[in-house]
Amino acid sequence: MARRMGARGGTLALCLALALSLLGGCARQEEKSQRQLFAMDTVMTLTLYGEGDTRGAEEILDGSVQQIQWLEDFWSAVRPEGDVARVNAAGGAETEVAAPTASLLRQSLELCAVTGGALDITAYPAVKAWGFIDQEYRVPSQAELAELAGRIDYRQVSVDEGTRDGETVYTVTLPAGMELDLGAVAKGRTADLLAESLAADGVSSALLDLGQSTIRAVGEKPDGSPWRIAVQDPAGTGYLGVLELADLAVGTSGGYQRYFEQDGVTYWHILDPDTAAPARSGLAAVTVVSPSALTCDALSTALFVLGLEEGVQLWRDHPELEFQALFITDEGELYLTQGLEDAFSLTEGYEDREVTVLS
Amino acid sequence: MSRNGKIILLVLLAAAGLSVAAVAARRGETDHPVARITWDGEVVEEIELDRVGRGYSFTLESQEGSNTISVEKGRIRVAQADCPDQVCVDQGWIADGTVPIVCLPHKLVIEIVGGGSAFDAAAG
After folding, report:
1. Whether residue B99 sits in one domain with residue B41
2. In chain A, which among 10-39 make CB contacts under 8 A with chain B?
3. pLDDT at A319
4. Chain B closest CA to A99's CA: distance in Å?
5. Is A212 left (phi over 0), alpha (psi -120 to 50) or beta?
6. How many CB atoms lie within 10 A of CB A38?
7. What is the ipTM, given to two decimal places?
């Protein structure tokens, strides 16, 4: 009798231990922590599941917020003490910048080159002239646009390094009259750096939404399923499709994101570096998927400028960039590069939409 | 069922209940959609969207400017605002947590917490 009771007591203890471990495991795995902040001219939402190896979720998120603010100080053209603003104000003189700025500029310049200048990080004077910085919108004259286009040329940017007291020093030189605008690359790079920090902290599941145009997934969802990222219908307010992905970034550029209307014409913020005017390539939006958020951010802009045909050619010619793309034309047609075929599906109400898979 | 069997069952049920409660409490979310309105991160209003009977509107004013918010059962939008870009107004209604409504010039955010959503984020 005593032995039987002991056995039952053991079973009970075992069940209790099992239940408690389930409880603990469940809470640890699924605990969701979230932070929202205004930065880089948008609102960002950082979502983290679970904890780090040695730091709690809240402490990690505090670090992420600080990292964003630190990078914004460097890369915002409107923060006078920042690297970009100082380079822009230098009037052609060599300007010392921080290592993260030099690194971002070098990678961005490579992307400018690979896109044949469809991406150009020196368009700030033109972006300002259209009023996209201070929201005092205006349409510059043809003569003004020609003059502005003449001041857009990423090839004039030089990033150099030297040593001082044994430390590496980085400098940037830009001809007088030209100005940097990292709007098409800063959020992407920020997302990549945040993701690196989270991974170093041992975080295995997080979603970094840097204002819809740049999204970076770290790992998969806590239940092991892919993240479901809706794709905005550029012609309406709904979502026309969904991308299911893990450990990848998504970048989107569209004419509907930031624009103004004058005399019945819509002018958006994505400018063609050749004309200094809004890029009109027949595309309403481009979404790029890649392991690198910087690549997504930069190439979504470049592909929007290039248009479908040249954009697809860039995809075919540069497999080393490791990106896939979804093109949405002004007519609402969808073109998908082959690598996204399995990840993309149309949402309810859009099932009739024709999707062409490109190979 | 034996007495010990009942105890085991009770313990398991209690643990399961606790587990759900713990997760829900940690996430600060409910089964029902709640619209949370914040100004520069500070919560100014929380509205249980399931409990809205007749639709109504109200205006929030700050130094930055004003936003008129309309609420109906299960959804919310910014109906009017004096911001220059009108992005918050153009976004229309939201009914789940996929994307918040953001009025950047006024640092106003309306997000729906709880109630679940079909997507984790939206690219656009």
Report:
1. yes
2. 11-12, 15-16, 19-20, 22-23, 26-27, 30-32, 36-38
3. 97
4. 30
5. left
6. 15
7. 0.83
